[in-house]
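User: Predict the full complex structure for these chains.
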Amino acid sequence: MTRGIASLLVGLLTLVGAAQAQHKAELATLDYHLSARALAPGVYVVEGDNADFSVANGCNIINTGFITTGDGVVVVNTGPSRRYGEQLRSLIARTTKEPVRKVLQLNLHPDYFMGHQAFVDVQRLATPATRAGAAAEAAAYETNLYRLCGDWMTGTEALLPDTDVAPGPWRVGQREFELREYRGHTGSDLVLLDKTSGVAFVGGLAFSRRVPTTPHARVSEWLLSIEALQSLGLQTVVPSHGPVFADGSGLAQTRRYLQWLDGHFRQAAQQGLEMNELLRAPVPAEFRAWAAFDTEYLRNVAHLYPLYERDALRPAAKLKP
Amino acid sequence: MSSAARRRCLIACLAALCAGPGLAAVPSHADPFQSLPWEDMRREYLGGARAVFDERVQVQGPAFAEDPMNVPISLRVDSTLGPVAQIVVLVDRNPIRRVLEYFPMQALPALSFRFKLEQASPVRVAARTADGVWHVGGTWVESAGGGCTVSGATRKDGSWPQTLGEVTGRLFNGGEASSARLRMRVMHPMDTGLVGGIPAFFVNRLSVRDAAGTELARLQTYEPVSENPVFSFDFAQAPTGGVRVVGSDNNGNRIASQVE
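Assistant: Here is the predicted structure of the two-chain assembly.
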């Protein structure tokens, strides 16, 4: 009992800002009602719904962020639409007098950059792999998001990142950052560490209380990346999806999920299960309770199970016809 | 009502129909999907024979097609229907509606495969019983569209000739409903002919034979079957000594491999 209360308290304390009122997107006015929450002096997160894309939430399911440096603002990801980008920029203007100096895009997925149009006058940085991937996928992203999000997308066209960025120390104004490039969620997963505050923007490598998205995932590489990140002893971890935790537990959750998925899918393939059987096989209650389970788990199976199936089948000897 | 809202309503209505008395144990003549092409499909693909909608023909698919080029479908005909000579898989709203025909022979009337879905549609499975009546089951798969009119990965990157006709596979111990399962994958681009300048090129026949050469099961496949298709066949008795997979494509290329 005592331990139960203690762990409950720890849970409450580590879920930073869980009590914050959620601002909901408003379809009638196409207002996302974005709000900035300070995680440390000058370091802000702009939290999206922990859900799947929908018209009701304006497809705002991403956590973006911005950081003042004394010499302008660094923006981390720009959201799913032109409108989101514009509303993010006006939120930044309401929050700080510093001009926006740089946009940093952490991976190639659409909600990381479809708001770039509001930052056409700003240097937009991404790794070479992310730039190439975003260019290749942009047209498909536009089609898909217009279909899923409707009027929220009006006027949105992909504006790509325009400048390469490489891992290593990165100084902007008075702030010392470190950029680290990992892979596994996508082919290039950039992580921004703010040395001053200790806040880490880990992009799609962590999904907290949400089933991870996997269209470009490589599970074994992803797990190695999470292990590497965990060894850094990060405190406040901002995932792109789901709540911000002060103890890095979003990383632990994603690691737990991927380890379960890896073992479960491998075993299913080795037993000869086909996809519909796997889709209907039991999933631990913890994961079923996470956001977007119904749609995202189906996608996980569609994206990843064929790889496990392939490993389970053996080359058949050719016969003379 | 917006078109998206209408579509959601339609799906909800269909879901209600599936859950409701429309697909009760008693076979029915009322199409649970109320699909306009169905009557023409019955004439064209089922020889105009009598067809009843029957939930004992069980069809499983995903709620939506995350990958419209690889929509997984599993079918199983309940043993209370007696012997099944032929099974036909049809997709109402595909530009090419017939996906495959399955002759279970000595295998169980159960099959899994993946296919290319062009748009949201009912997926029908018609099983012909000994009295010549088609028993039809189905499932609805939602889709953003585009499965039949784009090239597969090996056509896009040009790698298909290096692996054409190669088979990988394995015989597994069966699950609850069978004693053995053959899963196999045949490398083939399975071009639909609906991509500009690329003619239809697809596996059209696959047989599973035992070590003595006796045919255990036969598939006739058509353009909508997925690239590098994966099939699962279930058997009441495990074939001894492995199985041979033999077949061809519509250009006359031969497939012949031994799966252990």
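Confidence is low (pLDDT under 50) at residues 1-24 of chain B.
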